[in-house]
Amino acid sequence: xxxxxxxxxxxxxxxxxxxxxxxxxxxxxxxxxxxxxxxxxxxxxxxxxxxxxxxxxxxxxxxxxxxxxxxxxxxxxxxxxxxxxxxxxxxxxxxxxxxxxxxxxxx
Length: 107
Known about the structure:
Elements: E1 14-20, E2 27-35, E3 41-43, E4 60-63, H1 64-69, E5 76-82, E6 88-94
Antiparallel strand pairs: 1-6, 2-3, 2-4, 2-5, 5-6
């Protein structure tokens, strides 16, 4: 019998946080972030969001069906905000990105 925690490679555990009105819009702006082991969060640049000579990057737009199918990687955070209803959307956190299983007293 093993008493320690066993993590499976194929586990699909993630945290879903609906905010505002939830998923009521038809199109969503998608932003992705990575959480590093030291607790820092950094934005992930997508290939299509790189622009030539522009200061702002292009927004990634996804449909409602695509947002419902999204699954974050273990250290990824996905934030989907409604285009027309700015107060609606969802945030998806991978199990490592939540910080729930992090060592609290690590030096």
